[in-house]
Amino acid sequence: MQTDVCxxxxxxxxxxRSQKNSMRRIAFALLASALSxxxxxxxxxxxxxxxxxxxxxxxxxxxxxxxKVTQDDVKAAADLIVSSGMRDAGYVYVNIDDTWEGKRDxxxxxxxxxxxPDMKALAxxxxxxxxxxxxxxxxxxxxxxxxxxxxxxxxxxxxxxxxWGIDYLKYxxxxxxxxxxxxxxxxxxxxxxxxxxAYEKMHQALLKTGRPIVYSLCQYGFDSxxxxxxxxxxxxxxxxxxVQANWASIALIAKTQIGLGKYAGPGHWNDPDMLEVGNxxxxxxxxxxHMGMWAMLAAPLLAGNNLTQLTPEVxxxxxxxxxxxxxxxxxxxxxxxxxxxxxxxIWSRPLADGGVALAVINFGEDENFVRGIGxxxxxxxxxxxxxxxxxxxxxxxxxxxxxxxxxxKRHQMLLLRFSK
Length: 420
What we know:
alpha/beta, TIM Barrel, Immunoglobulin-like, 2 domains, 6-stranded antiparallel beta sheet, globular
């Protein structure tokens, strides 16, 4: 969700990135060390190590419902996640985004609004389905949609979430932008220090509840969050702006992940935003490429579609067990691009069993450009004699070489798994 505050922050971010210097890097290194030491001193070191050991999977309300989501909508989503087979495929988080918040009482306790009459009962219902419930807030005094934020009430809110039985928190920077600008109007370094401190404050609050709650940072990738996210307890962090239900947005975000693989791993993941599979006017090829790419990127798989209108095709894409297995691979290594030729790119991901996942994608827009390229198996880490399986076509290929014949239309993906 982006507001004027977010767009302003994005502009400031671009300026900030252009002003990097050695003093700034040293300052951030010192800050990260201080925050990390503080966390170690105040909590048990392993407090969150088991959380998000693989990328979280589930569903988020925003892409489809936005501000109209209700408690009944979330209950219905939980039912459909089970009946569609999504739960059994690994989609277990049912995440409420913004607009559930009401007002605070005289004691500062936050209450839900009329759309969510009983959050504890909702959590109990979701848990009864073998699922987990997620919620949303902001480190500012207001959320993106101008509802009540957590500024000054971090521990109070964390305790409330724990009492309800919340399992996941998306913490969105939106409302904190004005706080940063008001207290450090001309000091970008100070603003980013404030941002990190705000995220660490909620991290500590969550730890003190004693309840394992996945901690998701949503601050659009500002100031290389992948470098400092783990030091503030984040299990995942957004790397870009909001994804849209069109190929241009999906392709741009995918390419933005180049070089970020070294920052991801069990318990801490790069988040290129929610899945748009089944939304907008995405074609079947685009839905498969989108899903396949997010799986290769070890990205959180949070569906954002209307579950009441699931088609067999979309369900099949979201629940393809071989694709999900790549995403959830225990090694936790994110794919990197290993070769590019024109609009066609090859991405490779090592797997825990010694195998390799390889994706070839035609990012081009020319409908007449239909072709394949050499697979560059050596660069991709594929050893001689490994056997290939074409996942989207459910076909064993045996041992193949670089000159394997295939062709890709615009926005198509060849997704292969190589095994010993």
